[in-house]
Amino acid sequence: MSRIDDLIRDLCPDGVEYKPLGEVAKYSPRKVSAEDLNSTTFVGVDNLVSQKRGRIDATHNPNTSTLTAYRQGNILLGNIRPYLKKIWLADRTGGCSGDVLAVEINDQYSKLLESRFLYYILSSDSFFTFNQQNAKGTKMPRGDKEAILRYPVPVPPLEVQHEITRTLDKFTALEAELEAELEAELEARRHQYNYYLDELLSFKDDSNTLWRPLAQLGTFHRGKRFVKTDYSDHGIPCIHYGEIYTRYGISTSSAVSNLDESLRQKLRFAQPGDVILVDVGEVVDDVGRSVAWIGDEPVAIHDHSYAFRSALNPTFVSYVMRTDWFRRQKAKHIARTKVKTLLPDGFSKIHIPVPPRTEQDRIVEKLNHFDALVNGLSSGLPAEIEARRKQYEYYRDRLLTFPEKN
């Protein structure tokens, strides 16, 4: 850090100028034919990886004949559900779908701003928070393209940019190496966990366990829509369907969000002991994702969610819904439109095992212990991986924060 501190003190003692992103960069104006693209050069929002993990090869072809062209050094941003933090610094030329923004540095700043430095700026949590706060829509929020161009970008001298990107590149490589080792161990444990989950909940050697369709075991209750402006720091606990993908595991006793108390009469609630299901998703596996609500009070749910209410242990049901055999059955009852949608009538006919309640409780206790080791965010390997990421993000954000020039 001392080298960078020295450079900043010597080259910009009065602070650093901040410019709106739209002054230093623009969205790519160029177009490319879909016929000129392949799986390695086409980038849709589906093959950008969440949490700033770059890209993977596309698994499907573009659905339009003409796309936005990008080139090496452009920064590609996933513009659907900004909280997924999808970003990639292009190392090739190609084309991207309309749900991906290709940001390129303006000609007049080409010798004043490094694309890699700008990539690190737009990879910061402060940028993604800004983007999420300005997003439009509730069903599938999108970043506001005009607001994004207002994001303030520091433009220190090139020598400072060079040193920061060099330092961050080294730190990123080291962090990636350490994280890859932890991820490999975690993946091995997850395979073991999934095998154990399927074996324990298959009851294939137990002819006495009854199997019943969900419709015979309980009832489904749809939530009611609420929007971003309804949120409050305190008030009615709520679970938005989008949070079930990213913020919750098998079960939860507390909600991370709240709604204004004045809305109570307009909302619909999951009761303690319900299992909350998502009815939409970008991919099939997201649809029907569940979390058991084991809190002490009702929780408001969105209209893209259902509360499944039964006398079963809700965490047992949530575990059952994570098994491979259940997910295969579920996939038969999903409408394959652009946004995948659950077909509740068919879904309710899926059979699940119904052992005695004491056996459900015993299985939940076993699986909870294993789940904490493999998936728990406060313990085990996920916690160690998350700690590494937070350490990196803290260091990166510190390097990219400058005193602003008056």
From TrEMBL:
A GO biological process held by the record: DNA restriction-modification system
Keyword annotations: DNA-binding, Restriction system
GO MF entries: DNA binding
Top-level lineage group: Bacteria
Domain (Type I restriction modification DNA specificity): residue spans on this chain: 99-187, 214-387
Entry keyword DNA-binding: yes
InterPro entries from the UniProt entry: Restrct_endonuc_typeI_TRD, Restrct_endonuc_typeI_TRD_sf, Type-I_RE_S_subunit
One Pfam family cited in the UniProt record for this chain: Methylase_S
Protein family: Belongs to the type-I restriction system S methylase family.
Subunit details: The methyltransferase is composed of M and S polypeptides.
Protein's name according to its UniProt entry: Type I restriction modification DNA specificity domain-containing protein
Species this chain originates from: Actinomyces oris
The organism's taxonomic lineage, starting at the top: Bacteria, Bacillati, Actinomycetota, Actinomycetes, Actinomycetales
